[in-house]
Amino acid sequence: MFDVVVIGAGLSGLQAAYTAQQAGLSTVVIEARNRVGGKVWSVPLASGRGCAELGAAWVNDSLQPRIWAYAQKFGMKVVKQRLEGRAVMQEDPDSRMEFPFGISPDFSPEEKKNLEHIRGHIQAESLKPGPPSVKDDNVSLDQYVRDLGALPKTIGMINLWAEVMHGLESTEESAAWFIDYCRRNRGLLAIRADDSTGGQYLRFQDGAQTIANRIADLIGESNIHLSSPVISIKDHTSHITVTTTDGKTFTGRKCILSIPSTMYRELNISPRLPKPVREVTDETVLGDYNKAIVCYDRPWWREQGFNGYFASYSGPVILARDTSVDEKRHYSLTCFVNGQKGRDWGKLLPHERRAVVLQQIAKIFKAGSDSEAFRPIEVFDQIWQHEPFSRGALAPITAMGHLTQYASVYGKPVRNLHFVGTEYSPEWKGYMEGAICSGEIGAREVAAAIGQKPQAKL
Ligand SMILES: Cc1cc2nc3c(=O)[nH]c(=O)nc-3n(C[C@H](O)[C@H](O)[C@H](O)COP(=O)(O)OP(=O)(O)OC[C@H]3O[C@@H](n4cnc5c(N)ncnc54)[C@H](O)[C@@H]3O)c2cc1C
Question: Which of 244, 394, 423, 440 to mutate to test the pocket of ligand 1 (most atoms within 8 A of CB)?
């Protein structure tokens, strides 16, 4: 019998296993996929020019201490997000405006003032300490900003934030969920920033998945069972048994479940989770959060003074960034196709998905039909809703009213079962840092329950 059986080898599960091991607990990790990392997935380019980050990419060295400590421990080289050049805002398919990167788009003075007022309000709310308000949890983010007097362009921008941050429309998540997310993540502006003050500052030259692979090495290959989807968890009070689809059984004193809560309902957990836990987790949703990564031979957009960043109200790409690693002659635009537009895009055939993305890139950067925009050397499209062991991203979002109603049970241990995942993290929820933070907390909970003291942080 193991002390701890960890289900899932994403960053939260890996960290939980590593912290538990460091506390002297015998640990086994059971992972459905044939790889570790979960939503951190770096795929080598056929051209040999580095890798494409199909999942998580950006980190911050000063604001995210856990992921940064690993980056240093593993000697990982980083690249700073490029800030030079003009950005583009697309308001509808036929109108675009260029603006200096990092400044609000050049809307009319009234529209600009309105956007800055509402953004300032949300930023102020997101710097307040404490739990979210019940009132704000029962109103959609869209209604919340309308009640504050948002004008159409501001309403569009808030919707774009919901799409790009969570893969949902602003009508589909509560204002409290949005504000709480910002509170846990150093405020709205830190989430949106691409410089040293924000979440999109640095990327890893050799891929973020290296962190997951190297933590797995620390845990030990023999302690991680890949290609082993779990179907049932049985809590016998004195111990717990975990069974996989191919009939393997693992026995532990405790179990740490690290899969997104939206997927708990697919497991046969006995005895059943308490009713309030089921009520909240049965209703969490995962966003439509997709990437099209378009790789070129040269960064042609820079020659015309473009930064590579664009945002669009009309889509299908709602936001894009230059994700090149010049040292490796890797030149790419990473295009997010999220929310409702991502839902629609995911229904297209692969060649249709690629065609609409290339057409939009060409339009945004004023490139002709015979230009390099239409001659990528590689294109990746990753639809996380199509991944059976992810079903969307970034992190499960609670239903309207549930964040406050079920705060006392959401993510809290049930008998011998403990829950981790980026969704539960008090810091950088939705991010790799949050996954590591939650994994650490979950393992400490288990160690305390078993009566062991964790030794070290990393
Ligand atoms: C497109 C995209 C872009 C992102 N960008 C960033 C970014 O720039 N910066 C950042 O910090 N974060 C980013 N993230 C978020 C980041 O990837 C996640 O927050 C983090 O990886 C979540 O880790 P986790 O362990 O909580 O969950 P997961 O990674 O989902 O791990 C859960 C694990 O459980 C496994 N599993 C599921 N079901 C079963 C089962 N039945 N049996 C066994 N195992 C199972 C899964 O295969 C997976 O390995 C991004 C994510 C996506 C998808």
Answer: 394
